[in-house]
Amino acid sequence: MLRLAAGHMRGALARRVPVAPVNTSLRAKHDHGHEVTEVVDMSRPLYWDRLDIPLPDKPYKDALSDTEKSLKQKEKGPWTQLSKEEKIALYRLMFCRTYPEMKQTTQEWKTVIGGVLIFLGFTGLIVIWQAHYVYPAHPRTFDEEWQAKQLKRMLDMRVNPIEGFAAKWDYEKGQWK
Questions:
Q1: Higher-confidence residue: 114 or 37?
Q2: 3-state secondary structure 97-164
Q3: CA dihedral of 92, 97, 100, 105, whole degrees rounded to 10
């Protein structure tokens, strides 16, 4: 049996097909049509704008135009000869956003609060609907008349005469102490 399995493995290894080199981004096509998704190779350096990582793995712009290439060549010289606009353009080649732009608050909290309030409103409508149509009516023991009769019965039976109802009721005057 072991010899049979080893022979089968030798045959499978002999039929291996060489694989083409993998590109940095792969394209996956669905069988049913025109949908194409881009699969990013996460082992390659990526650009991220993050406050805790001041220098990303790669620059923001990889493909440079002719003017950007000439600006990069000019960058190698003394920076005192660069104008303020050129320095800003060089910064934008390397980074997408500045620290103040990254620290700027977004309006996402409004969407979150709105979603929570919609959810709570919908839940409240369900609770009201259940109280009206699903749950039975309150039992008769919840009525004030029934509770008054129950209290009188407990006092007549002298329930818990040391610390309870009977201890706080004056039986001679017929009122609470």
A1: 114
A2: CCHHHHHCCCCHHHHHHHHHHHHHHHHHHHHHHHHHHHCCCCCHHHCHHHHHHHHHHHHHCCCCCCCC
A3: 160
pLDDT at 11 over 60: no
Q: Provide the whole-model pTM.
A: 0.45
Query: Within 65-107, where are the H helices?
Result: 66-75, 84-94, 99-103
Between 40 and 149, residue with greater pLDDT: 149
CA distance 35 to 4: 44
Tokens for 7? 């022979």
- Nearest Cα neighbor of 159 from 171, 149, 167, 147 is 167
DSSP, collapsed to helix, strand or coil, labels residue 92 as helix
> Side-chain half-sphere of 139: how many Cα atoms within 13 Å?
2
CA distances from 131 to 81, 122, 141, 157 (A): 77, 14, 18, 37
Rg (CA), the chain: 39
